[in-house]
Amino acid sequence: MQNLGIYASRLVRKEENFVPGHRACIGCGEALAVRLAAKAFGKNTIVVNATGCMEIVASQLPYTSWKLPWIHTLFENSAAVASGIEAGLKAQMRKGKLPQEDIKVAAIAGDGATLDIGLQALSGAMERGHDFVYLCFDNEAYMNTGIQRSSATPFGASTTTSPAGRAKAGQMSWKKDMPAIAVAHNIPYVATACPSYPFDLIEKVKKGLETRGPTYIHILSVCPTGWRCDTEISVMLGRLAVETGVFPLYEVENGKYKMSMVPDKLKPVKDYMKLQRRFRHLKPEAIDSIQARVVEEYEKLLEKAK
Amino acid sequence: MIGKRHGIEVSIALADAVKLCDADVIAAYPITPQTHIVEHLAELVAEGELDAEYIPVESEHSALSACLGSAAAGARTFTATAGQGLELMHEVLYVASGMRLPIVMAVANRALSAPLSVWGDHSDAMAVRDTGWIQIFTENGQEVVDQIICAFKIAEHHKVLLPVMIHLDGFNLSHVIEPIEMPDKQGVCDFAPHRRSPLTLHPSRPVAMGDFAPPVIFTEAKWAQEQAMLVVKPTIVEIWEQFAEKFGRTYKPVECYKCDGAKNLLFTMGSFSETAMTAVDKLRQAGVDIGLVRLRLWRPFPFEEFCAAVKDAETLLVLDRCISSGGPGGPVASELKSALYKLDKKPKVVSFVGGLGGRDITVAGFEKIIVDGLELAETGQERIFEIVGVRE
Ligand SMILES: Cc1ncc(C[n+]2csc(CCOP(=O)(O)OP(=O)(O)O)c2C)c(N)n1
Ligand code: SF4
Q1: Is the distance from CB of B73 to CB of B25 less than 8 angstroms?
Q2: Which of A72, A83, A91, A259 is deepest in the core (most CB within 10 A)?
Q3: What pLDDT digit, counting tens, does each position of A51-97 carry?
Q4: Does residue B48 belong to the interface with chain A, where contact is any CB pair within 8 Å?
Q5: Kind and range of the H or E element at B81?
Q6: How many CB atoms lie within 10 A of CB A7?
Q7: Does residue A234 line the site of ligand 2, with CB under 6 A?
Q8: pLDDT at position B179, please?
Q9: pLDDT of residue B389
Q10: Longest Cα pair distance anywhere in chain A, in angstroms?
């Protein structure tokens, strides 16, 4: 991030493209992330929104929170719809049916829409090389339908379909590494971001948008409702996710990894987990094993970024 | 303006018709018996004969989703599918009609698994009959070509703005070589120039499409869509009349063959109708009182035209190429019965199901349907429907 944080606030657009009045829960990190991303989009972007919290809270007829051309169609097809928009604009500009101009396309979706049900459409669109940015707002579960596990749910988290009980301690598999899946598609730009680091997020979204070809940004979005945490700490929790190494910030440009922020020393994951009641059933040994896995994954990442 | 007729495979001619209409975006996913259509379009794009974005998607769900995007951006959009592909598109079909997106899709009708069958019947078309698409059934290759051209004009008409499905029987029609007269390019351009939708996705005028509708507004939204669907028939008829004027071939929602004064009528949809006509000819010569009614426009259903065509008949023998499982027999027969309900003098309906999964019905087969059907009408049909040619 260099010294961006010092002066960047002055450079950020004042105008909002995702405006107040939506129905997100108090402290919703996802709504904050969408607002920052929408600032980065600027005026010349068409937004495709998958079904999920952000679509539901921001588009209830007869209102909309979007000042940009916006379309929601279904849960699993935002990448495919974005492909069609991009192709439709391209063909019409080439054939003189629309004036030539630089119109960007952004697909936005939750983790369920991205890592699970929409993965095929996203993979197809990335492989075909459509020029669009795809933003996954990862709140680590299906929140809109009431906190069911997704393949982005972290190990040990209790959700309504991976509840912690006497026989089971919540979600029993490790979070799917979606950025790595995106990287494996050999696309020009992949990044992770978190609205707790707003300037970094804005810069990355801009970069994603400006890079030609498909780009993917994975954005950790704290959900107080689903994470069972206090509403006023969502920004802090996002920071802790990064500072503990649970959610490292990095970019992958043409396959080259680069860390966006390397804390001097990782904070213990329990500092992060103890603030969230979704983890409260975990025994110290379980937290120790999660700690070990986090460090292992983090070091692998540092190695890639060398 | 009568042009030259050339022998050509119907799928290829269909793709050529899409070229004549100068589509901007084509989304393609292979499935038998539709494959030749998208293959030929790929060739046309590769050869530079058609200037279009060709999106070889990774599934039918994405094919229609890409079509949603491109039509929402105002581009003239085409795709084709069949059977399982249409089923995979199912939820997307509702979005296309609910958003009033003028997409044109060819469906080379195919049976649905299991057991696996790549051959034709109308199960796929019937499974999507309530999705809000205009649905047109074709009889022969010429009609396929002409209806594709009309479909773009219908879909994009400002009084319509609804997606259109052109059904052609898989293999029975898609793969046969027929003499077809291709309309001339200029004629097609004049007849069906691309009309962009009034509302499209563009930064110059931001719109929100596909918002979330709470119960206070959903019914109104659906009612508005239904009103649109109900009033499109005159526009479709008008476009067919304009087509007749320009290209000399006439199309109507319901076609009657030797119906005048006939007390007994056979009812068909799709390419079997031509075989059925031959059977009608033969039986007429043998002194049997029979005519044929064929439905072209399946959605919106042409109630008036249908009732007018059958109002003087005593018997209506209906052939369905689909089973409405555990229900009232063939879906078409049950719908026709409901259309007749308000007539004081209704014909007796005898329901047949046949031609499933590519099973052929020959001229002799249709003769048997007619003879058996007339007998059943006399004696009364005990079963809900008769199944044609089954080895029990
Ligand atoms: C085909 C289909 N299956 C299920 C649903 C129900 N559904 C709507 S939103 C949603 C969860 C969305 O979760 P996610 O993508 O993680 O976004 P979030 O709500 O957490 O932001 C589900 C399961 C649907 N709309 N469509
Ligand atoms: S459930 Fe979570 S993601 Fe959804 S609006 Fe509420 S806080 Fe935001």
Answers
A1: no
A2: A83
A3: 999 999 999 999 999 999 999 999 999 999 999 999 999 999 999 99
A4: no
A5: strand B77-81
A6: 9
A7: no
A8: 97
A9: 87
A10: 66
Give the confidence band of B381 by pLDDT, cuts at 50, 70, 90.
Answer: confident
B297 φ/ψ angles, rounded to the nearest 5 degrees:
-95, 110
For A8, B229, B311, B361, the CA distances from B356, given in Å and listed in that order, are 67, 30, 29, 10
Interatomic CA distance for residues A127 and B25, integer angstroms: 18
Render pLDDT for B160-206 as a digit per residue (tens, 0 to 9): 999 999 999 999 999 999 999 999 999 999 999 999 999 999 999 99
Alpha carbon distance A214, A42 (integer Å): 18
Q: A46, B203: Cβ pair inside 8 Å?
A: yes
Give A145 Cα–ligand 1 centroid separation in angstroms. Answer: 6
Query: Please, how many CA atoms are within 13 Å of residue B223, restricted to the half-sphere of its CB?
Result: 6
Rounded to whole angstroms, how far apart are CA atoms A245 and A39?
A: 27
- With cut-offs at 50, 70 and 90, classify the pLDDT of residue B1: very low
- pLDDT > 90? residue B110: yes
Distance CA B69, CA B201 (A): 9
The CA distance from A175 to the nearest CA of chain B, in Å, is: 25
The closest of B320, B181, B292, B328 to B246, measured between CA atoms, is B181
B209 strand-pairing partners: A71
Enter the tokens of residue B136: 């047109």
pLDDT number for residue B329? 83
Q: Do the Cβ atoms of B24 and B70 come closer than 8 Å? A: yes
pLDDT, averaged across chain B? 96
CB A196 within 8 Å of CB A221: no
> Which amino acid is it at B227?
Q
Confidence of residue B210 (pLDDT cuts 50, 70, 90): very high
Tokens matching residue B233: 């028939």
Which among A66, A73, A82 is the nearest to B95, CB-wise?
A73
What is the DSSP code string of B306-360?
HHHHHTT-SEEEEEESS-BTTTTBSHHHHHHHHHHTT-SSPPEEEEEE--GGG--
Single pTM value for the model? 0.97
A60 DSSP β-pair partners = B212
For A111, the 3-state DSSP assignment is helix
The whole-angstrom separation of Cα B226 and Cα B153 is 20
Using one digit for the tens of pLDDT, what is the confidence trace for A101-133? Answer: 999 999 999 999 999 999 999 999 999 999 999
Cis peptide before B300 (omega within 30 of 0): yes
CA distance A210 to chain B (A): 17
- Asked if residues A212 and A255 have their Cβ atoms less than 8 Å apart, the reply is no
The four Cα atoms A108, A110, A112, A115 give a dihedral, to 10 degrees, of 60
Q: Does ipTM exceed 0.90?
A: yes
pLDDT for residue B322: 97
Residue A280 has pLDDT above 60, yes or no: yes
- Residue A71 and residue B61: Cβ atoms within 8 Å? no
**Nearest chain B Cα to A70, which residue?**
B208
Phi, psi values for residue B374, rounded to 5° = -65, -35
